[in-house]
Amino acid sequence: MGILNLTPDSFYTRSRVIDAEYLTSTAGRMLDEGADFLDLGGVSTRPGAENVSTNDEIKRLLPAIKTLLKAFPEAFISIDTYRKAVAEIMLNEGAFIINDISGGKFDQDMPDFIGKYNVPYVMMHIHRNPSEMQKLPLDTEVLSEVKLFFEKQSEIFEMKGANQLILDPGFGFGKTLSANYRLLANLNELRVKDYPLLIGISRKSMIYKPLDIDPEKALNGTSVLNTIALLKGANILRVHDVKEARETVDLCSLFLINTTF
C-alpha cells in the first residue's frame, strides 16, 4: 500500500503531494513499482497535528481521487479517513478501501456504514486521539489492549454486516517505543478470525529515534522492520517507498515458501 499524503504537515516531507502533476507521477511510479493499493489521506494524524474540518478534508480528497482514477482507472484506491461522511463520498467516487485510524471509535456511524456496503475496511488501533496519544502512551499492557480492541470492534462490525476487515495495530499511535517493538515481536498473536494484518511502520519514530536519524534517512530501518513484520505474519505493508517494500515482500515470500517450521 503506497502512501499519498494530501496534507501540508505530514511527518515525512517527501510523501506530501504538492499538485495534480506530482500526484499522478508519484502514483504512476508506485503502481509501476508494484503497489497493490494507493492510500490517499487528507488529514495528518501525527502527534500534535492540527484538526482539519470535514469540508476541508473532502476538498483535498475529491479532486485527488478523480485525478487518480482518470489516469489509472484500474487502481485500487484506499481512503485514509475516520469520518463516515467522507468515506461515503469517496466510495461513490470509486474508492475501494476505507482506512480508519480509529477503528470506528471516532465516528459512531462508521460500523453501520461499513456493514451496509461491506467494503474492505482497515480497523486500526489508536490509544486516545492524535493530539493526546503520546501524553500517556500504552506500555506493558499494549498486547492485551490491542487484541481486546480487535476482538470487540470486529464483533461490532460483523454484527452490522461487515466481514472484509483488515487489522492494523497502529504502530506509534499512543504507544511507547518498547510497546511498538512488543507489538512487532508478537504480531501473529494479534490476529483475530484470520483477518489480514496491515503494518504501517514506514519511516516512523520507532525507527529513526533509536538510530538517532531523521525520517529522511529511515528507509533502511524501514526495510529491516518490514522484513520482521512479514516473518511474523503481516499481510499488507503500508509504505512510502514501494520499490523497496515490494523487494522485501518478494524475498520474504521466497524464504517462507522454502522454510519448514
Key phrases:
two-stranded parallel sheet, globular, 42% helix, TIM Barrel, 261 residues, 8 strands
CATH A-level architecture: Alpha-Beta Barrel
CATH class: Alpha Beta
Order of helices and strands: EHEHEHEHEHEHEHHEH
Here the CATH topology equals TIM Barrel
Strands of the biggest beta sheet: in what spatial order? 1-2-3-4-5-6
Using the alpha-carbon principal axes, give the shape: globular
**Mean pLDDT, as a whole number?**
93
Distance from first to last alpha carbon: 28 Å
Largest sheet: 6 strands, parallel
| Unreliable runs | none
Structural class: alpha/beta
Total tally of structural domains? 1
Computed Rg: 17 Å
What's the topology here?
Blueprint lengths: L1 E4 L14 H13 L5 E4 L12 H18 L5 E4 L3 H10 L3 E4 L9 H8 L3 E4 L17 H18 L5 E4 L8 H9 L12 E2 L5 H4 L10 H13 L4 E2 L4 H16 L4
Parallel strand pairs: 1-2, 2-3, 3-4, 4-5, 5-6, 7-8
Helix pairs in contact: 1-2, 2-3, 4-5, 8-9
Short summary of the structure?
With 261 residues, the protein is an alpha/beta fold. 42% of the residues lie in helices and 11% in strands.
Would you kindly provide a written description of the structure presented here, covering whatever features stand out?
The protein has helices at 20-32, 54-71, 84-93, 110-117, 142-159, 177-185, 205-208, 219-231, 242-257; strands spanning 2-5, 38-41, 77-80, 97-100, 121-124, 165-168, 198-199, 236-237. With 261 residues, the chain is an alpha/beta fold. It has a single domain, classed as Alpha-Beta Barrel (TIM Barrel). The radius of gyration is 17 Å and the shape is globular. The mean pLDDT is 93.
